[in-house]
Design brief:
Blueprint (H helix, E strand, L loop, with lengths): L7 H11 L7 E4 L8 E8 L2 E8 L7 H12 L8 E4 L6 E5 L4 E2 L7 H15 L16 H19 L4 H24 L7 E3 L8 E3 L5 E3 L6 E3 L1 H10 L13 H9 L7 H30 L12 H14 L6 H7 L6
Antiparallel strand pairs: 1-2, 2-3, 3-5, 4-5, 6-8, 7-10, 8-9
Length: 341
Amino acid sequence: MIGTFPSEIVRRAVAEAIGQSSDNCEITIRPAAPHQTNRLFDVRTGGKHLITKEYLRADQPDAPQNEYAALRRLAAFDLAPRPVFYDPSLGPVVVYQYMEGSMWDRRIPSPAELRALAELWIRFHSLPIEGFWLSTRQTRSWNEVEARLRAPVQAYASWTERHSGQVRDAARLSLDVLDRSLANARRLSSAETRLCFCRSDARFANVIARPDGRLGLVDWEDSGLRDPATEVADLLMHPNQEDLLSWAAWQPFLSTYIESRREDPGFEPRLQGALALFPIFWLGILLEDGMQRSALGTFDAWQINEMEPNARLRRYMARARAWPDPDPVAALANLGDLTFF
């Protein structure tokens, strides 16, 4: 099958990493997740287990360099895979040591695990910021952010004009929450943001429960300087785990992490602003995906992190309408069986 065998660039990177021909090791591709924008290969040789990551997105040319630099800066903390090899002249491929353990993904972590995750975040969020780069998600101006959030919702509203009245109701509500959410987030935004080094990819699938009981974090290609308030909202709202934990269940993480931000008086208002934005961010992304799938005839096979698409979309609609209340249950009930597609 095309794409399942390592490219010549991958083989050359592996050879450099192990100091011998790649023919002397076993290289096997890992099954790709639906959202994945890279190819991962397991490399086994001489009792060693390495991961070779080949980056595929031409619009993110700095991703391999940023990941390798992040892994080098974090090596002393032993919370991320240890870097082994990267040569930009060779191509967009990074080799690092495999991190033993199992990912959290769709399981519900215990209160102790959530506190441990907060403590892990605090460690690398406390690094001096000199020498770090801006996260790609932190480089956008407010006008760019607003334009990015408006575009998919307005495109969906235009798309529904050719369809039934029920989906037009969903479009009308989407436009309403878009305007309300943007206004609330704009009011709470601050020019005095204190950036710190963040992962910028906060899904539970990147959290590793290690055999010795510690946690590890993988996939650092999106890392960089970012508003920590945005990072926390990203964690709470990501569809990988958005439905797994109530606001009360998140408190072991939130109370531990927020305490570390006491010297940043704007943190909690910015967090509220980010919590207003992320439901419409994900609403827009999923509406775009749904329109594409409808055009391709692949909608019926679509699941969003183990949930039927309309149910997942209703959850983000409910969160946007419930804000600033972090509990979307009542708002979700009021939506009934609202259908987007």
